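A reminder from the course coordinator: this example appears on the midterm review sheet, so study it carefully.

Given structure:
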């Protein structure tokens, strides 16, 4: 008899809901049916019997195992140290799942001692239109997306973009974000697009652009980078943090950065001594943007193709299912296996 699997995703963070949905569909494809619910609905829902496996897909302060169940924490974290109180919470779980080796290393370094595994959701389950022409647009078009938060590094990207393309008509940067951010002083060739988009609508946007850029100071995974790669769009970013698992070293435009003490924390309880981040260099961003804009169409096409093949070899459905079937702790969710 197969135990029920329930994934509780934090609905306050859009990317967590996406990952939770992809994980549920991935487990189902592996023969492990899972129900996906909002984290806040857990207290009002029937969780099932004591054999129910509950996967908590949220952030540090909300990790709380549910008595009487097998509890798995699905952890995403941007910096390379995890707060002590959060570590103590994780050590009360049966086990921990992460989507990248960076997060696994961070948690081990921070003192998490329970069993831990890299369990990757398949990232190619939703159709993503693929770019087929690598002729540059006029003007050169760059896309970025993410929440209006310091960590996403939009201030660094905008400044680097302005230095790379100071003249009107040379290039255009479009940043898709959520409503509620402060964007005073944005240059004329930078568009802030905060109109709500469905997931399908967002995935269809990537291929409209010549380049995807991320100047994020840190990502546990980096879902937009993965989506851009799957859309066949060349990527400009760094390979620190979760990005490292997504990128092949010769298949992206490298954004110069230095690993530095993490300079900003949105809440005191999110801070841990020794936290570091990737701080992109503004002049380096400008130089990399100019390099991408001057590159040959054949080079960009080859780069995009290699990057996509590499990513599918790690986060594509076929590769993910092969890995799942070889991981004993994941297979153990199937009692009849």
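Designed residues:
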């Amino acid at each position: 008899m197969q135990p029920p699997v329930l994934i509780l995703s934090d609905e306050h963070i859009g990317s967590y809901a996406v990952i939770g949905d992809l994980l549920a569909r991935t487990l189902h494809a592996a023969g492990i049916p899972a129900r996906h619910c909002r984290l806040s609905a857990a207290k009002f829902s029937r969780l099932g019997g004591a054999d129910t496996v509950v996967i908590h897909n949220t952030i540090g302060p909300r990790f709380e195992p549910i008595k009487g169940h097998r509890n798995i924490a699905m952890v995403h974290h941007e910096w390379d140290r995890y707060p002590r109180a959060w570590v103590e919470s994780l050590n009360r779980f049966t086990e921990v799942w992460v989507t990248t080796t960076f997060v696994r290393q961070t948690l081990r370094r921070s003192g998490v001692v329970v069993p831990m595994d890299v369990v990757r959701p398949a990232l190619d389950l939703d159709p993503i239109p693929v770019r087929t022409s690598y002729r540059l647009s006029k003007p050169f078009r760059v896309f970025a997306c993410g929440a209006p938060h310091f960590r996403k590094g939009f201030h660094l990207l905008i400044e680097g973009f302005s230095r790379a393309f100071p003249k009107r008509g040379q290039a255009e940067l479009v940043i898709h974000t959520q409503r509620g951010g402060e964007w005073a002083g944005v240059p004329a060739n930078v568009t802030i697009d905060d109109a709500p988009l469905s997931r399908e609508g967002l995935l269809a946007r990537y291929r409209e652009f010549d380049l995807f850029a991320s100047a994020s100071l840190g990502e546990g995974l980096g879902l937009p980078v993965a989506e851009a790669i799957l859309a066949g769009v060349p990527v400009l970013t760094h390979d620190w943090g979760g990005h490292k698992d997504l990128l092949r070293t010769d298949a992206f435009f490298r954004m110069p950065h230095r690993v530095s003490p993490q300079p900003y924390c949105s809440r005191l309880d999110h801070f841990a001594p020794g936290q570091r981040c990737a701080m992109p260099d503004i002049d380096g961003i400008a130089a990399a943007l100019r390099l991408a804009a001057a590159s040959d169409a054949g080079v960009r096409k080859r780069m995009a193709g290699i990057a996509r093949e590499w990513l599918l070899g790690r986060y594509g459905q076929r590769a993910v299912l092969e890995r799942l079937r070889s991981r004993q702790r994941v297979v153990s969710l199937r009692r009849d296996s």
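The CA atoms of residues 162 and 288 lie 13 Å apart. The chain has a mean pLDDT of 92.
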